[in-house]
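Task: complex structure prediction.
Instruction: return structure tokens for all chains below.
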Amino acid sequence: MNDADPRYGGEVRRRMASLAGAAPAHAATGPGVITGRAGDREQGAEVVLLLRLAQGRVAEARYRAFGCPHLLAAASWLTERLVGCVRADLERWDWREAAGAVEVPPAKFGRLLTLQDAVRDAAGNWPGDAASTV
Amino acid sequence: MTEFVYLDNAATTAVDPRVVEAMLECLGPGGDYANPSAVGHDPGRRARARVEQARAEVAAAVGADPSQVIFTSGATEADNLALLGAARFYRERGRHIVTSRTEHPAVLDACRQLEREGFEVTYLKPGTDGIVEPAQIEAALRADTLLVSLMHVNNEIGVVQDVGAVGRLCRARGVLFHVDAAQGAGKLPLDVERDCIDLLALTAHTVHGPKGGGALGGRREPRLGRARRRGGGGQERGLRSGTLATHQVAGMGAAYRIAAACMAEEGARIAALRDRLWRGLAVIPGVTLNGHPTRRAPGILSVTVDGVEGESLLYCLSRLAVASGSACATTSGEPSYVLRALGRSDRLAQSTLRLSLGRFSTVADVDTAVQEITAAVARLRAVAPERRP
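Output:
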């Protein structure tokens, strides 16, 4: 992987090497699994989140993404960050948290809004009462 | 240090050791390091002889008379000297210029400058195969057309324009013809007499010569604008003052001499490598070739990989030195204007790789590239969302 390119920090390099949290092709959806989708690959960024819920919280998160290394790394990071979250956490999650964690340069901040939109979309697909559980 | 496979020879090439040797002979104590304009002493005359030998070598490679070769810092300077100099000098003959949308920025920027000075420029759109047909040129010519500028080989997609047909057309109509041959000279047959080229921009570093060496050649001398754009000692017939860099000039001469001597054999070998590369990549679903399938320079292959994001693809190809487009444009981060002109969307333009081969490329390089690209594409597609219906 690209260890010498100064455009990418250590977290991007580590996550691009492993692509940890990526969902397998045709990952199962169904009872207990919600999705959050945002972006358009024609615009250069598309994210799908697959969140398995248990006892009102995210028990497991997976992603599929089309985009630059910063976006893929941020999506990978997010799959760990979202575990344990309740619906309200998703509703208020802000892209800046990923920007800091993955060392995303300002020119790429727009890509992270796609990630935030996917999280919000997942919150909207949370089963049960529309009102926040918190 | 990571071992690289270098497939970016359209951006620049490694200097041939024989060229290095010729350059070193002009540098150190005991070498021909004297000022080539100082012909009052023997060391200066020896340096001058080196320069004139190189001038003859470059001229011979493109069928020009040595007296018509002016050394520059590269093709960019030669393009500017040709276009700005000729247009300004002959401005009373006409103020219309014809070029294409896929020219190098050195030509397009010079044309924009001329527009600011009152010239009108017609930018022709090539076909989806990258070819500008002579009939398009003919249709664009007007009574006040002064000059046509068309590149020989496109630096991004490698298509070869029929400069001979365009040159003969221009000659018949009394229009000056400028050719940017930075990617074609020394690799494909080019003859300024046969092809009726009035102004020819050359560079050394794409034919295994040194960076910083270039030349403006031509069939005859359309007296270039003599406004002293760079005052000084009047070197290079007053068009480019400044002490000539003998070692650069000698290196360029050696590079063109070697290239001309092995053009046919080397071209065939490199074209075979390019075809092997394309055969390896073409089996990847969603990979398409950019540009005309057969009218191509031996060493340049441009492919678009649908279904992967361009920056991530390049990231995963860290062992390969390849370009996502013209090296001159990649710092902007903008999609390639050449690929856009061919009708590619911004996304597809960003998912494009230019792989360019040279004298030192090998079968192993090509096979490694195919393996690395195949693996990277599979890896990125494996994490991409399924396409929406």
